[in-house]
Structures are given as C-alpha cells and as structure tokens.
C-alpha cells in the first residue's frame, strides 16, 4: 500500500531523503517537505526535478513549519494525509514531532537522538531521557516509531543484530567504527552542521563496558583499525546514540563507538575548544555585543553542503562484533563502503549525508509495505535486519561482511 | 625644569608609564591620565597610591577624553598645563594627539606607529604614510616629537645607534631580536591587546635588505638565535615599526626584525587565521547577528593585564649589529633583559608592558631637563643614546653589550 510521506528538515540529509523518496514514489505516495524556511524546501524539490528523480508523476510539495510546535506538525500531517513522517530536522525537535505522530497515528522515523539545546551529553542511557518515555504511548496508540534509523545510529544497529544472529551464540563485544577517508579539499570543515558536530565532542564520552557505563574524555582513547578499502585509520572512543540502545539489548557485551579523526581535525578542535570558541554560552565583546562563540565559528566555517561538488574518496562504517559460536571465539566485521563522488552524482550530496539519508527512506518503504509496521516504538536492532539489507542492496548502500572466511556480500554463500 | 605630563591611554603600558612618572615626579611636574573610560584611569591612579609610588606629594588626576578628537585633546593640554604628552593609547589615535601637540606646543612621545583601523601593513616606509608628513609642521612650531619611544620600537633604535657609533665605521646589518621567554601559565594568551597583536602578523612582512624593501609572509623565515640569559630561541622575520625608520637612517645596512614564537603560539595563530577567525571584516551568524570574528576571539582570550600576577621568566630584546671597523668585520649584540616577576612587584604589570612603558618616561625626563628637547620630530636613532642609557641604568632597564670581548654593561671599561 502506498503511503504519503512528510519529511521534516531541509539540510543536507533532507536533500538525500527527498531524492530517495522521489526515486521510490511508486512505493511511497505523495511527498511533502517542511522546514522553518520554505525556500530551502523549494530548492531541494527543484533539485529533485532537475535530476528527474521522480520515478513516476506525483506530488512533491513544500511547507513552512515550526517543528517545535507539536500541534502545527499534527495539523500538517492531517492536511497532507501523511502516514509516515521522516524527521531529519534538528535534534531539538524530535519530541514535538513524535508527539504529533502519536496524536495523529502517523508512523515516525528519525536518525538522531533528541537533544535539549541547553544540555550536552546527559545521563546515560540517553534514549531513556526522552524517547523511551513515550514507548507505552506509542504502543497504546499503535504508532510505529523507529528511532535512530540513519547510518550511525541505524545501519550499525542492524549490523550488530545481523552479526549476533548469523554468526554467534553469544556476543561479547560490539565495536562500531566510523571512518570518513574522503577529502573535501578545504583547510577545515565539519561534514554536517558545525554546531551539532562539535556538541558531540565537547562533553563526556560514554561507553558500555563490563556491564556498566564507563566515562572518558574525547580523544583520550585512540586505536588504529585496519578496514576494507580505506586501510589503516586511527579512530577514537566517542559518545554516540547507538551505544545507548545496543547496551540495553546486548547488556552482556561491551559496546563502544569509534570515530575516525585525522590529526589536523583534532588539532583544530583542540585549539578552538581550549580557547572557549566552541562554547554555547554567550560572551560579551569589548564593544558590548553579546554573542555565542560557537555560532561565530559556524559562520566562518564552510557550509557543509558546499563541500559536495569537490568531495572525493570513500567512507567505511561498520561493526566489529566478537562472540562465541559452539564454544569457539568468532569475530566478524559487518560494514558498508560509500563513495562521495557517486553520492554527489546521484543526489547532489556528499557521502556523509548520503549514508545518513538513504536508510530512513528504506525504513519508510518497509513500513509502507507492512514489513516494519509493528505499531510500537523500536530501536533498529529490534527489527529483523534481512529485509533492510535486501532493500539497501538495490537502492544504494549494500552490506558486506569480512571474517576469517573472507570479504563478501552479507548474503553470499 | 619640571614639566607637567599628560598620559593618554589606560591599558597595560599606561599603567607602567603612570607608575614610573609617579616615581619621578620630582623631575616631572603635575601628572594627568586620560582615556575614554575614566574608571580605568582611576584604577591606575589608585594602584599608584597603593604602591606609594609618588616620589613626592603632587597632582595625579584622571580625565575622560576622546583622543580621536584633536580639539578635545588640545583643550585638555591647555587645561592641565601639560608640556609633555605621552601617548600610549590605541595606535589609531597618534595623528590626532600629535596634531593637538602641534597646536598647543606640547612635546609629543609615542611608542607605536599610527594605524588606520581599516588597513593592515600599508606601503613602506610606514612612518611616511602619517607621522613624517607632519615633520615640517613640528619644526615650524618648535614642537619636540619623539616617535616610537617604547622598547621595540624605541630602545632597539637606540641600541642600533650605539652599536654603530661605538663599535664600527660602517654598519652592514641590524637584526633586532625580541624574545619573551616568560611563562604565563595559560593555554594561550597574547601579551597585549589581541586585536592589535594579531593585526601585526596577518599582513605582509616587510624587511629592508640589499637597499630595497623585501616582502615575505609571516612565519615564512625562521632562525634560531642563541641569546644571553634566555638561551637558544627560535624567532621569525616579522614586520615591525622600527624597520621603517632605521632603513631610512642606515640605508646601506640590511634591517630586519625577528620575533620569537613558540610552536604552540604559531599553531593557534595558524588555526585561527586559516579559519577566518582573525578577520577584522564582519560575518553574519545563522541567526542574523553581524559580528567581527577578531573581536570574539579577543573576548574569549585572557585580558593580558590579568597575566601579570602569575607571569614568570625573562625577556631578552636586543640588536645584533654587524659592520666593519678599520677594515675588520665586527659584530655586537646590544640588549636588555627584563624579569616578569620583578616588573609585577614594582608596578603591577608583566614584563612586556614594563619594557614598553619605562622608556617613554625616560624620554619625558630627558625632554624635561632639556637634553632631548630638540624642537622637531625625531625617531629614536636620531638622538644620542648615551643620556638615555645612563638614565635607564638607574630607573629600571639597564643596557648590556655582548661581543668578542664578552658580556658587560654598555659603559663598562
């Protein structure tokens, strides 16, 4: 059954979501795109038409919305007849958009955890602070809500589930490794909104080890990884959403997230942080102007979406999962490799936006056809990953496996 | 004859000037301190009294002034009966204060070249763009104006003159080396106003070599120096005021200025500059606020005057002068060494402010007693340096010499 889709947000990931929805509007129904600035929605929809991305004739409309206003979102869901909402707006709007879905019965999909603008790295598990408090309400209303359904979180949760199901009786550790071996050619840039990017790394690093939450500082723990395609790369123990659900579903396993950073990124980040330029608290200039330093840093950095045309190289994101099978120790690396240039050619975005934006469309398609329409709130590892991998093999993000038997497609014999 | 003094400015250097004038108010007369913010003047005068710095009972008054307003400065000169003006305000006010001196007949002393806020590193020689255009007017009015009478520029110009006069027939090169081997204990700080400090290093580096102006970029040319007390230190070819007068007075010599920088300073500077955070041109944040990045950097950095209590270590600033004497090649290093802690104990300031603030008071005393009251505009190397060295031996900045014959006081036998 076709279902109308409402996309919330008009940034780099929304651009990818819009293109992918258009490419699959024979499975999905009417498409709607809403953000605070309608001109950004119009620009995305224009790029969809420029690429001839609509698979078949259909509706793709833009709307202005304040997504912090639950009632306004609910009204837009009703007005558009949307049965699936893909929320790729700011992480500050998750709870109001989710509330609108509970109110209207629409399915809800997001790609990042809810954040309070005034807080950084709250008490773990993060999902328990906001989203999981509405789990019973979703179940009562029969609302399907799939949390963290981008790449990481998202695909990496499915990778962990697949490794556990297919290769082991017992899981002992899940190490998620995110390497961007691409080159944007600028002195320095973040790959998505600098304000959100830096917020990830200025607080405590939480990991789940030995059955408990452990804390570290950013860049305190680093390790070199040898990965398919991108080769040897250094990655650092980092805080990330998926650790906060995988630890609940695999409490006996250590769950860690590792983000790759070059020395140059770390140096720039360290200088800015030590000077106080990453602070979200305002300072006052000698002339009496009150200004948030982080917002000035954002203003001087490149717009991440401007990187796409010149971006070259590949990303490799995957899970190294260890455990036992029939009493023997086993390990498997489940991963995807994406190419920045290919992403730009297909949807006009760089690879980081591409990997985050394609999966939520796959989830929407699997809700539309009933496979994932469970009528309750779920994290991705709570769903059977095989339909997801099968679909993504055909729409842009194929899953691969590397273990003692070699490197191959996830479903190869 | 005692002469009343008006000090313009209320920053770190003004604090030193105020204390030193007070310590010598038997030679100088009534003291006056004026800046845009009268509270800053009051705080400095209070610190003078706290230290019991007034050598004898006398006047020390604060005034509010807009030093960009020549007529207002002239009125204040007349109202206070000031016969000497020590301008240690922003480098943007030199020309208006000089004009007020020409109008009233007061002697003029400054410690840094005039700057236009909207321009960086103009066409050399810099003095010809502003100050020297008023040389004839000073001579016609019989006004003594001593330009660049701090440490560098200032004492280093006198060091060059002394080396040339005392040790050689012909000068072939003058290398001024400024090393601060002190430690303020902060992650990063400039030693004076960050806005002025960074402006020195974001433009073209001019040096005078082979009888012509040469251009380099900042940090392009570095050299290790082995200096008295501070030992081996790396310094970089930099643009600086004194090169622009010494090259006119010693046109056959190469004239270069070398500023010491640690790798950490260079790294922080490089990151900030490459990101665009040192720009004096405004940017607009996502929220629509227009803000000059350099002013935000200034707002997050420590107030340089706050460094003084914890500052330890020494500065070494001097001239390595090479030439020939009776056909033989000779070289001599003329220098001063200052101690941050000693400076703080005496006048409540760190060593960088101390070395810049003591010399203009010595010049004022030598104008007051007639020695340097020449009734025209001069750069420091145009004056006989011996009275200056003799006075500074007693009031805080003794001059030393190191050459093939050893390391000794400038006037040792």
TrEMBL record, chains A, B:
Lineage: superkingdom: Bacteria
InterPro entries: NAD(P)-bd_dom_sf, Sacchrp_dh-like_C, Sacchrp_dh_NADP-bd
A Pfam family of this chain: Sacchrp_dh_C
Gene3D superfamilies: Dihydrodipicolinate Reductase, domain 2, NAD(P)-binding Rossmann-like Domain
Domain Saccharopine dehydrogenase NADP binding: 5-146
Domain (Saccharopine dehydrogenase-like C-terminal): residue spans on this chain: 150-393
Protein name per its UniProtKB record: Saccharopine dehydrogenase family protein
Lineage: Bacteria, Pseudomonadati, Pseudomonadota, Alphaproteobacteria, Rhodobacterales
């Amino acid at each position: 059954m076709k279902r109308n889709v409402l996309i919330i947000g008009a940034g780099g990931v929304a651009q990818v979501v819009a293109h992918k929805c258009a490419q699959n509007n024979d499975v999905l129904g009417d498409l709607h795109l809403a953000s605070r600035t309608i001109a950004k929605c119009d620009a995305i929809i224009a790029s969809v038409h420029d690429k001839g991305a609509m698979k078949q004739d259909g509706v793709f409309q833009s709307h202005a919305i304040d997504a912090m206003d639950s009632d306004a979102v609910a009204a837009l869901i009703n007005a558009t007849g949307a049965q699936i909402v893909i929320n790729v707006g700011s992480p500050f709007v998750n709870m109001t958009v989710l509330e609108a879905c509970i109110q209207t019965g629409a399915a809800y999909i997001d790609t990042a955890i809810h954040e309070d603008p005034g807080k950084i790295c709250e008490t773990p598990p993060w999902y328990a602070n906001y989203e999981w408090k509405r789990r019973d309400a979703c179940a009562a209303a029969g609302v399907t809500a799939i949390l963290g359904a981008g790449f990481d979180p998202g695909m990496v949760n499915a990778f962990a589930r697949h490794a556990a199901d297919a290769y082991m009786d017992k899981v002992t550790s899940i190490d998620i490794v995110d390497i961007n071996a691409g080159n944007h050619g600028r002195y320095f840039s973040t790959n998505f909104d600098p304000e959100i990017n830096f917020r990830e790394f200025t607080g405590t690093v939480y990991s789940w080890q030995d059955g408990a939450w452990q804390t570290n500082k950013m860049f305190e723990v680093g390790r070199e990884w040898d990965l398919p395609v991108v080769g040897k790369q250094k990655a650092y123990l980092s805080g990330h959403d998926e650790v906060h659900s995988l630890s609940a579903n695999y409490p006996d396993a250590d769950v860690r997230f590792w983000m790759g950073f070059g020395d140059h990124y770390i140096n720039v980040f360290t200088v800015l942080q030590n000077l106080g330029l990453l602070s979200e608290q305002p300072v006052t200039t000698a002339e009496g102007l009150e200004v948030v330093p982080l917002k000035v840093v954002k203003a001087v950095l490149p717009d991440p979406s401007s990187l796409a045309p010149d971006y070259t190289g590949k990303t490799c994101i995957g899970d190294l999962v260890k455990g036992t099978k029939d009493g023997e120790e086993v390990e498997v690396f489940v991963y995807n490799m994406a190419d920045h240039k290919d992403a730009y050619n297909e949807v006009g975005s760089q690879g980081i936006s591409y990997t985050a934006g394609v999966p939520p469309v796959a989830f929407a398609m699997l809700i539309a056809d009933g496979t994932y329409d469970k009528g309750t709130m779920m994290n991705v590892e709570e769903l059977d990953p095989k339909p997801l991998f099968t679909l993504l093999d055909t729409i842009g993000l194929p899953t691969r496996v590397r273990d003692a038997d070699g490197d191959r497609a996830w479903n190869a014999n």
